[in-house]
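TA notes. Do not distribute before section.
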Amino acid sequence: MNNAPFHLYVDAQFASPYAMSVFVALQEKQRPFTLHTVDLDAGANKAEAYARLSLTARVPTLMHGELALSESSAITEYLDEILPGLPLYPRDPVQKARARQIQAWLRSDLMPIREERNTQVLFYGVKKAPLSAAAVAAAQRLLRFADQLLPAHGGQLFDQWSIADVDLALMLNRLALHGDAVPQRLADYAQAQWQRPSVQAWLAQERPPL
């Protein structure tokens, strides 16, 4: 099955941070794949054909042979298990558990930041209103979390780069790219992750106008 082609379904706006995470993972593994777009605004993910393909009717969805897998962290863990090349997760069990914790937390918390600094900020450069009190509190939690986890040198979270670095940098950049207050050390880390060729390949995708 490892020789089966990969098909990655992402949103037509190339604005899903979760689709970006899987796209980056495939780029880092240097594995060819066919990219398909799904127009979420038009409800294409709810169409019968896509609903048959994706159990959750969401993006991203990865097709590999007969396997159709959705939910981004499940996909990146799968890719890391079956593909050689650069590891997406630390090999040390403790560090790997921490990387999974980071991904799970970023996907389940910090909703005020995600709402008030949505992906239009990241991928379209849109400016939003000042943060609400709830979003300021969420931002403080995020910055404290990142400061505690990021080593003093600030290069990456663990001994080597991991996909959790991209996910954390994306959340930090919701603030930093908007001009909200982010400590310089964390802003530098997020900007360095943003410059990875795999991330730049996602940023370079042609997006429809808002």
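Switch to the second chain here.
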Amino acid sequence: MTVETLVFEDKKTLVDTAARRFVDLVTTAQRERGSASVVLTGGSNGIAILAALAADSGDIDWSKVDIYWGDDRFVPAADPERNHGQAVDALLSKVPVDPARVHPMAPSDGDFGDDIGAAADAYAAVLAEAGDGTSPAFDLHLLGMGGEGHINSLFPHTPATAETTKTVVAVEDSPKPPPRRITLTLPVVNRSASVWFLVAGADKAQAVAAAHAGAAAADWPCAGAHGTTETVWFLDRSAASDLPD
């Protein structure tokens, strides 16, 4: 597994570069196996890359892409904070995806109502059906990151971050609102061939440096995420400011 750290002068260059590499990765997977599987993330950078792909997605055959989410807020489907809804607005409504291959997490007014545990279990079943009984080995898992190092909805010193068996868990008390979320766990992230971090801002610099220094995942969840083939950090200069020269 290789680790690559790329530092850009600004967020736009970061996002544009990641989008071009996304096209290359997905089209390569489609040439080799006929389809590709990706896990999307929310946040400003996660949505920005989707908007860049909506403007130019090269030769991607969107009908042969399986799309999942690393986490989502357990709120009503129409809530503007839903990662799924933001992804639809930024990209999925603009490209010819196969609806059967788009796998959002259930909202709080969906099939399971307010039962967040049932909704999390249902998403685990979706992964198990697509994978080998556990979860798929995704081609690409996109990750944003918080200043305290959280990824997906895996926060420091929480049971969700420490989970080693379940693929999907319900989070009832997220320190970042809203408190109720559904998230993939580190074992699922770490089955992905490529794990890409999209990180900008000086408030993320300490977490970036901790992950690069091999910190414990319990303290800095971002440090516990890696791909089986590659881990790539797309950073703006501020986010990289605490890395050694």
